[in-house]
Amino acid sequence: MTDLLLQCLSHQDCTWLTTAGQSLTLQKGQTLETTQSGQQQVYIVLAGRLSVLPYPLEHSARSPIAQSLTQVTAGHFIGNLSQPENTPAATLIQALEPTQLLGISWDVLHQKLKADPHFAAHLYQAAALLLAQRLQTIAHTNIQAPAQRESVTVFSGLNDSDLAWLMTVGQIESIAQDQVFSHPGKPSDRLSIILDGAFVMHQINDDRSPLMQTLSDSETISNSAIGAELARLSKGDWIGDRIFVNAAPTNTLITAIRETQLLSIPKWRIAAKLVHDVEFASRFYQVIWMLLKRQYDLILQQFRQDDPDEREDLSDGQFLDRVPLAEANFEWMLNQIQTQLGTGRTIQWQS
């Protein structure tokens, strides 16, 4: 993981982090808590190994031993790169061996992210890549996200010029009701934005290796292999964004619930844009990181409390503040697309 972080950061980035950060050593068994009131420090693990516990030990009344969610090794981040008050769940970080950390004040880091798009693009890319890998190590990921949370993140994080470029290089795609859009194990070569309609995502029970699934000639899936419903995707949601964080194809089946229209952009187009437009890259990778962080927080909630009724609402004031901006951006993009297509059909944000 250290190599992955260093591949994303420049020499100037590393110099700034070294100057702005302070060293911290945790001995074996020592803990570091991130609380709901806000993590005021962001840490980079320099050496050692940590265990992420989804709730403080004293809160585990139902389980005398807190279950470790995952382990964090050198190169990973601890803390929230967005607003500290957006951290929805307390976690306990425990050193499994002597561990060296580099701590940076969140206020100082936030100012750097705002002022330096090159640094922001590099850091958010690294954070997204690392978080995607951490999610792949967690088995219990079958969580349905609240409706439109993803679309609000996407359309409040990108600006008009980003959306205009996506429309310029993208193509409108129509998927018929009950048509399969994405097969399990098959890598995606495009990023798609749902303009109208909806998809359902199911877990597929397949014991074959990922390579066998990918190279298999047959795309027929038996009903017995279709597992639990994972999520429903609607207007504004992305499909295919994981290809930009090196995530392996998943065992999921995505099928249209009704006729659905998409704006699809080839992967190579976006990959080239990320290289040549650093400001776009900073916003794009931040959006992907936020989507992954949202999924990670939902998993933390699942581990912290067994009773869904007792789980905390992950909504926050800042998210609600972003809804009008996201709605305006989405409607602006749809109006532009409808004008270009010469159609008077109206597609609205709300279902």
Protein model, in words:
It is a single chain. The chain has 351 residues and is of the alpha+beta class. The protein has two domains: 114 residues, Jelly Rolls (Sandwich), CATH 2.60.120; 193 residues, Jelly Rolls. 38% of the residues lie in helices and 23% in strands. It contains ten helices and 16 strands. The protein has a four-stranded antiparallel beta sheet. The C terminus is likely disordered.
**Mass-distribution shape:** globular
Q: How does CATH name the architecture of the largest domain?
A: Sandwich
Largest sheet, described in full? 4 strands, antiparallel
- Helical proportion, percent range: 25-40%
Mean pLDDT: 79
CATH topology of the largest domain: Jelly Rolls
Count of helical regions: 10
Rg, Å, rounded:
21 Å
Find the structural class using helix and strand composition: alpha+beta
Gap between N and C termini, in Å? 41 Å
Number of domains: 2
**Strand order, sheet with most strands:** 1-8-3-6
CATH top level label of the largest domain: Mainly Beta
**Total number of beta strands:** 16
Helix-strand sequence: HHEEEEEEEEHHHHEEEEHEEEEHHH
DSSP strand content: 15-25%
Low-confidence stretches: 58-65, 140-148, 306-313, 344-351
Q: Let me know the CATH homologous superfamily of the largest domain.
A: Jelly Rolls
